[in-house]
Design a protein that fits this description.
Strand order of the largest sheet: 13-12-11-5-2-1-15-14
CATH class of the largest domain: Alpha Beta
Number of strands: 22
Structural class: alpha/beta
Bound molecules: alpha-D-glucopyranose
CATH topology of the largest domain: TIM Barrel
Length: 550
């Protein structure tokens, strides 16, 4: 029977996945061509980043037509074929719905600009100050003020992201009806799930200036957000138990997530939250260089595990996506312990309570590309922030150091299929450079190697299906204060799972607080794991131990 708690989602960034027509950009046929690979990995869903008509200012998160496929990615026929072929392999397609904003090239915005009052009310317009200042001091997430002035109208429109991404006015029932219709449109064409982009930002509260922050407290988890999501769900996917939905929650609170992803709140199946990844930030500031805070990482991960479980709500669990740097570069080791650290990090996520997400290339241990000049970057956020850092007086080299660690382009380089010149990604010129280490790190060298990172992910995915305790068990931290080990226990109907991870290169001795008598090892990243009252953990060693009561 279908159960999203036993499922694993694989995220495809279509632009960088596999190019079948030689234009240097991945396409829908490219995803179809690689379905056997994904079936071999064992995933249940493919979440695809947006491939709708878009000027691509923000790589498709600036949608100009919700119902049409950008010809760069293919045709509706290609999409339907992808759904059919995926279905044959037991894989379902999940689409990305970007409903907080549209591209300013969207027909609705164009009509608004042309003076059509009906469509003007699809967006958020305000008057500014008499001295030409914007309506308030909110900051765009991509840098700069969040309002753009339109001289012909004498008014400003809100854009929480790029100025070409205008925020939709969800207070207008017509907007909500249109968006429901978009959901139905894709349900009718074969989509079996949705990811909703920054969906906790759709209900704005008051429009005051924020003198303590950047404005997010006024529009994050806003006053009518639960009502809107409930309404959307009930009118569309909510009536079909086979449908899976995930909301991307920006700077959210756990209390709100109990409702967004509660078992019977009628909103979404699960949520992405990001607090556990802000552990190499200073506060909310990501454009800085600081070592990651392991204590904080554990604390956040664990409190979300226990909090969501207590409230019968469901997490999406993940390290990577198209907005995050590569995890092996971030929390693991790109050098000598590349493979063990990549496997350990995979184990941490896949044994948690929640639905795991694998981002393309994570399963083969892809790393950050190490770009050294601005012309290698494509991401609007990275380029904007490079200039902001330079304007603040930071030396060019330091600005590059920060981009190399935090840029979203770190995860957007082409999928490394093989060790040939273009990594087996394209016959043409890739839209963004390929990471040079594809000669060593690539899928071809791993798919049939039983010791590879790929094989480790395969096993993790299979374990979730095989052992109910992984899908349904509770969550209990072990030795939560330990400064280098991340360990936890899961229990379910007489089954016990103990997951132990040395998060660092330094070997560690550890006495497990759980008596390990009778436990067997289901998975490790070393060939000869040993279990005892005192464990000698090697660099990045990871153990998944299991016992079933007689
Ligand atoms: C989400 C997307 C990101 C995009 C932003 C604006 O955070 O994941 O890629 O830039 O929303 O749509």
């Amino acid at each position: 029977m279908f159960d999203f708690r036993k499922s694993v989602v694989y995220q495809v960034y279509p632009k960088s996945f596999y190019d079948t027509d030689g234009d240097g950009m991945g396409d829908l046929r490219g995803v179809t061509a690689k379905l056997d690979y994904l079936q071999k990995l064992g995933v249940d869903y493919i979440w695809m980043n947006p491939f709708f008509v878009s000027p691509q200012r923000d790589n498709g998160y600036d949608i100009a037509d919700y119902r049409a496929i950008d010809p760069r990615f293919g045709t509706m026929e290609d999409f339907e074929q992808l759904c059919r072929e995926a279905d044959k392999r037991g894989i379902r397609i999940m689409l990305d719905m970007v409903f907080n904003h549209t591209s300013t090239k969207h027909e609705w915005f164009q009509k608004a600009l042309a003076g059509d009052k009906e469509y003007e009310d699809f967006y958020i317009w305000r008057e500014g100050g008499a001295d030409g200042t914007p309506p308030n001091n909110w900051e765009s997430k991509f840098g700069g003020n969040a309002w753009e002035y339109v001289p012909e109208k004498g008014k400003w429109y809100l854009h929480l992201f790029d100025r070409t991404q205008a925020d939709l006015n969800w207070e207008n029932p017509r907007v909500r009806e249109e968006l429901r219709d978009v959901v139905r449109f894709w349900m009718d064409r074969g989509a079996k799930g949705f990811r909703f982009d920054v969906v906790n930002l759709i209900s704005k509260g008051s429009y005051e200036s924020d003198y303590e922050g950047d404005g997010r407290r006024f529009y994050t988890d806003g006053p009518r957000v639960h009502e809107y999501l409930h309404e959307l769900s009930q009118a569309t996917f909510g009536t079909d138990a086979e449908f899976v939905t995930v909301g991307e929650m920006s700077s959210t609170t756990m209390e709100n997530c109990y409702r967004y992803a509660g078992a019977d709140t009628g909103e979404l199946s699960m949520v992405f939250s990001f607090h556990h990844l802000k552990v190499d930030f200073v506060g909310n500031e990501k454009w800085v260089l600081v070592p990651f805070d392991f204590a904080k990482l554990k604390n956040i991960l664990f409190s979300w595990q226990t909090g969501m479980a207590e409230h019968d709500a469901w997490n999406a669990v993940f390290w990577c996506n198209h907005d995050q740097p590569r995890v092996v570069s971030r929390f693991g080791d790109e050098g000598e312990y590349w493979a063990p650290s990549a496997k350990m990090l995979g184990t941490v996520i896949h044994c948690l309570r929640g639905t795991p997400y694998v981002y393309q290339g994570e399963e083969i241990g892809m790393t950050n590309p190490g770009f050294t000049s601005l012309d290698q970057y494509r991401d609007v956020e990275s380029i904007n922030h490079f200039h902001i850092l330079r304007d603040r007086g930071l030396h060019e080299d330091s600005a590059y150091d920060i981009l190399r660690v935090h840029s979203r382009d770190n995860s957007r380089t082409p999928m490394q299929w093989d060790g040939t010149e273009k990594a087996g990604f394209t016959q043409g010129t890739p839209w963004i450079e390929i990471t040079p280490n594809h000669t060593k790190i690539n899928a071809a060298s791993q798919v049939d190697d039983p010791d590879s990172i790929f094989a480790h992910y395969q096993k993790l995915i299979a374990l979730r299906k095989q052992y109910d305790v992984i899908a349904y068990g509770d969550f209990q931290p072990l030795d939560a204060e330990n400064p280098t080990i991340l360990a936890y226990m899961r229990q379910w109907k007489g089954e016990q799972l103990v997951v132990i991870n040395n998060f660092y290169r330094k070997p560690a001795e550890w006495a497990c607080p759980v008596d390990l008598t009778g436990f067997t090892c289901l998975l490790s990243n070393y060939a000869d794991p040993s279990i005892g009252s005192k464990l000698h953990l090697r660099p990045y060693e990871s153990l998944v131990l299991y016992r079933k009561a007689e």
